[in-house]
């Protein structure tokens, strides 16, 4: 008999997963810190999914609660559907309630999310034998028009995922085969972290849009990209590719990734991004520099790549420059996934690879 699935976070993605998994026949429980949100979900009894999801309709939620222990109780799979800035604090909340055999999925993980999560559990004294999984991105492009009403504008055909350590990939893939087969368990959490393309596409262009943002101009974030912004993205991507090579991974360049994923064409980042009209029309630029494109994607993605570079002995000068400039603009930005916070101080490349692949 299938055990219930716990969802941590009742935002856009969390509600989408709640309705979706219920429609697939699974018992679902959901946690959120907002009492009003869980009260409304309890009143409605579930989530209505509309749009371009594989399944649509009303999905029943068995329990919506601010009691995280009650939501986690009896669940084999726990989906953490929250921005990466909350992963560490959520690990601290979950630590007292985790049980042997549970699978915790950081969806998405940003970069090295499972490493941070496991190190946090260790620091909390949690010795439960759990498997932590990271995904490269969300399954859905979705928006909750109101609590309990989710519009799915798109559902991905596949996205990379990995267990931490990767020796559990086949075991975890079997658990998701009938509910989220789109999770493609490949390689390890190193690859999944390098497949997080937000780290390439968000921080650097945002910094070069500073004048537009602070003058409160209306602009299209992707379609107004300039050749110079594209060149900086390519420089960051070259460092991402170098990290992949150092860890024995074959990655597609970002240009090739775009041509594989989107309806676009071209030979440079400037060309493939600005030619992706059908995908990007209407995505407006920010009105403040205090945006998740900096405050999340830098400390929880680019800083993690810096840490991977330090472990592997791979220089990351352009990544370093973007991080440095952003911290000058937003000095109170989170420290993020440094070697210390990941528990990787004095860890060699070989030891890190073993942690990610063998445990």
In words, what does this structure look like?
The chain is an alpha/beta fold. The chain has 2 domains: 5-192, Rossmann fold; 198-357, N-(1-d-carboxylethyl)-l-norvaline Dehydrogenase, domain 2 (Orthogonal Bundle), CATH 1.10.1040. Helices cover 44% and strands 16% of the residues. The chain has 19 helices and 12 strands. It has helices at 12-23, 35-44, 68-72, 87-94, 113-123, 169-176, 189-194, 198-201, 203-208, 210-214, 227-246, 254-261, 269-274, 277-280, 292-295, 298-312, 317-329, 339-342, 349-357; strands spanning 5-8, 28-31, 46-51, 57-60, 63-65, 77-80, 103-106, 131-135, 140-146, 149-155, 159-164, 183-185. An 8-stranded mixed sheet has the order 5-2-1-6-7-8-11-12, with helices on both faces. Strands 4-3-10-9 form a 4-stranded mixed sheet. Helix 4 (87-94) crosses helix 5 and helix 16 runs antiparallel to helix 17 (317-329). The longest helix has 20 residues, at 227-246. The protein is globular and about 55 Å long. The protein starts with a strand and ends with a helix. The mean pLDDT is 95.
Q: How would the blueprint of this fold be written?
A:
Elements: E1 5-8, H1 12-23, E2 28-31, H2 35-44, E3 46-51, E4 57-60, E5 63-65, H3 68-72, E6 77-80, H4 87-94, E7 103-106, H5 113-123, E8 131-135, E9 140-146, E10 149-155, E11 159-164, H6 169-176, E12 183-185, H7 189-194, H8 198-201, H9 203-208, H10 210-214, H11 227-246, H12 254-261, H13 269-274, H14 277-280, H15 292-295, H16 298-312, H17 317-329, H18 339-342, H19 349-357
Parallel strand pairs: 1-2, 1-6, 2-5, 3-10, 6-7, 7-8, 11-12
Antiparallel strand pairs: 3-4, 8-11, 9-10
Helix pairs in contact: 4-5, 16-17
């Amino acid at each position: 008999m299938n055990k219930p699935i716990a969802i941590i976070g009742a935002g856009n993605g969390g509600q989408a997963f709640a309705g979706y998994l219920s429609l697939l026949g699974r018992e679902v429980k959901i946690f959120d810190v907002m009492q009003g949100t869980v009260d409304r979900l309890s009143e409605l009894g579930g989530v209505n999914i509309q749009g371009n999801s594989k399944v649509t309709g009303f999905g029943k939620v068995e329990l919506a609660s601010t009691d995280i222990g009650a939501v986690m109780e009896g669940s084999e799979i726990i989906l953490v559907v929250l921005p990466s800035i909350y992963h560490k604090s959520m690990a601290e909340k979950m630590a007292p309630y985790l049980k042997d055999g549970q699978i915790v999925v950081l969806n998405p993980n940003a970069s090295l999310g499972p490493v941070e999560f496991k190190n946090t559990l260790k620091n909390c004294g949690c010795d439960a034998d759990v498997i932590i999984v990271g995904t490269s991105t969300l399954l859905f492009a979705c928006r909750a028009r109101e609590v309990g009403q989710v519009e799915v504008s798109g559902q991905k055909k596949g996205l990379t995922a990995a267990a931490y350590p990767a020796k559990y990939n086949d075991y975890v893939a079997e658990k998701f085969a009938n509910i989220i087969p789109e999770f493609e368990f490949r390689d390890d959490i190193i690859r999944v972290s390098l497949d997080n393309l937000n780290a390439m596409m968000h921080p650097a262009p945002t910094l070069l849009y500073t004048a537009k943002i602070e003058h409160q101009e209306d602009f299209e974030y992707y379609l107004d990209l300039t050749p110079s912004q594209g060149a900086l993205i390519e420089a960051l991507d070259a460092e991402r590719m170098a990290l992949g090579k150092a860890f024995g991974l074959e990655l597609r360049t970002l240009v090739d990734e775009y041509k594989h994923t989107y309806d676009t064409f071209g030979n440079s980042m400037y060309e493939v991004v600005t030619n992706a009209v059908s995908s990007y029309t209407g995505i407006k630029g920010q009105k403040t520099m205090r945006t998740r494109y900096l405050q999340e994607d830098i400390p929880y993605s680019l800083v993690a790549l810096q840490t991977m570079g330090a472990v592997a002995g791979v220089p990351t000068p352009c990544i370093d420059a973007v991080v440095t400039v952003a911290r000058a603009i937003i000095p109170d930005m989170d420290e993020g996934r440094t070697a210390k916070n990941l528990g990787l101080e004095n860890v060699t490349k070989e030891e890190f690879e073993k942690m990610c692949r063998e445990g």
